Amino acid sequence: MGRRLPIRLLTWDVKDTLLRLRHPVGEEYAAKARARGLEVEAAALGQAFRQAYRTQSHSFPNYGLSQGLTSRRWWLDVVLQTFYLAGVRDAQAVAPIADQLYEDFSKPCTWQVLEGAEATLRGCRKRGLRLAVVSNFDRRLEDILMGLGLREHFDFVLTSEAAGWPKPDPRIFHEALRLAQVEPAGAAHIGDSYLCDYKGAQGVGMHSFLVFGPEPLDSAIKCSVPQERLLPSLSHLLPALDRLEGSALEL
């Protein structure tokens, strides 16, 4: 068996891996509506958002870029549909709320860095690892990362909007590897989605780690991911990399 390549590059998912929203989507939407005189329950908006997001993602994947949409228009339509499903049928009344929400979700203050994220990124760089972002996010991500003080850790930020393909499409991972000029076996991806992150990266020959929070993992996923590739928190990453490098030395 040939010697396993040492890890040189770590690619990162962002949402719910490094960052999360400060407040649930339903609460954000309800607050903006209330400021404009519309009273809608946050729980109803949260449920409607999940439905609208799923439908929009299915009908217009990757922000509908190949179908003539912009990511901004895509998101405005999600907001309009969310309020419609929550019982607000006046699109004219919702339009300025949608504009405000798009701007607010562009601001770093709407997001928070997850515990351990910055320390882990610093620790990875201290080891000489190169870091990059591979995210199904839109063009707003660079400014959000900059505003939160995280952009400096990454060689590049590759969004699905810029790449033209969303995870788990292998092409976005291949593009990241091309930009970094690293072989798949010398790279690892970290994210919280089993399909988009763990399996997507694994599918192109990269190593992958699955981040999971306090919620119990689906039993089927838990059985299919080796224990050493599961990260209960980001603080577990560096020890996991040590184990991976140790196993490479034993080959």
TrEMBL record:
Q: Which SUPFAM superfamilies match?
A: HAD-like
Family the UniProt entry places it in: Belongs to the HAD-like hydrolase superfamily.
NCBIfam families cross-referenced by the UniProt entry? DREG-2 (TIGR02252), HAD-SF-IA-v1 (TIGR01549), HAD-SF-IA-v3 (TIGR01509)
Q: Which CDD domains match?
A: HAD_dREG-2_like (cd16415)
This protein's superkingdom? Answer: Eukaryota
The protein in question is named Haloacid dehalogenase-like hydrolase domain-containing protein 3
Q: Which InterPro entries match?
A: HAD-like_hydrolase_domain, HAD-like_sf, HAD-SF_hydro_IA, HAD-SF_hydro_IA_REG-2-like, HAD-SF_hydro_IA_REG-2-like_cap, HAD_sf
Q: One GO cellular component term, please give it.
A: nucleus
